[in-house]
Amino acid sequence: MLKDIRKNKKPHGNKGKKRSEETKLKISLAHRGKKLSESAKLKLSKNNKGKKLTQETKDKISKSNKGKIISKDTRERMSCSHKGKIITKETREKIAQTHYNNKRTKPISVYNIKYSSISEVARIFNISRTCVIKRCKSLNFYSWEFVN
After folding, report:
1. What DSSP element (H or E) covers 109?
2. Is 46 exposed, middle or buried (0-12, 13-18, 19+ CB in 10 A)?
3. Can you tell me the distance from the alpha carbon of 148 to that of 114, in angstroms, rounded to the nearest whole number?
4. How much is the mean pLDDT over the chain?
5. What three-state secondary structure class fits 9?
6. Is the pLDDT of residue 4 over 70?
7. How many independent structural domains does the chain possess?
8. Is residue 136 within 8 Å of residue 146, measured between CB atoms?
9. Can you tell me the mean pLDDT for 45-54?
């Protein structure tokens, strides 16, 4: 058997070699259904902490989750896990700031008064958001407009 010159160790068998699609599929099928031990889960968790996902990866994850139907049992468990949590004032402010900075919010001017979003105007005037958008686009409501 061939041996590596360094420290009489065996050479790395597959180092630098590409696996065929068939081989990849066999390995994938062999690993399906295997349960990871708690120590293995902790190691994986520790290695992935702090890693930033690229936008491409985030898009792939988003695409794979689109259209998934979550069972009633799962939704109920998710609901129970969030019940009773206390949200601090600081966290509420962060959430509000995130919603405010969201690209979907459009500042609107109505009668020369500026509002931060369509929803805010809809609440104040007691009309639907669709109605607010239509009024901003309409020539009949000249004092309703989107602010750039």
Report:
1. strand 108-110
2. exposed
3. 11
4. 87
5. coil
6. no
7. 1
8. yes
9. 92
- 133 contact partners, CB below 8 Å, separation of at least 6: 118
Residue of 94, 140, 147 whose CA lies nearest to 116: 147
Residue 69 resides in a domain: no
Query: Which of 84, 133, 86, 81 lies closest to 110 in space, CA to CA?
Result: 133
Specify which residues 144 forms β-bridges with: 110
Let me know if 132 is exposed, middle or buried by CB neighbors in 10 A (0-12, 13-18, 19+).
Answer: buried
Residue 140 belongs to some domain of the structure? yes
Domain of residue 123 covers: 108-146
pLDDT in tens, 69-116: 999 999 999 999 989 888 899 998 888 888 777 666 778 899 989 988
133 within a domain of the structure (yes/no): yes
Instruction: Answer yes or no: is 113 within a domain.
Output: yes
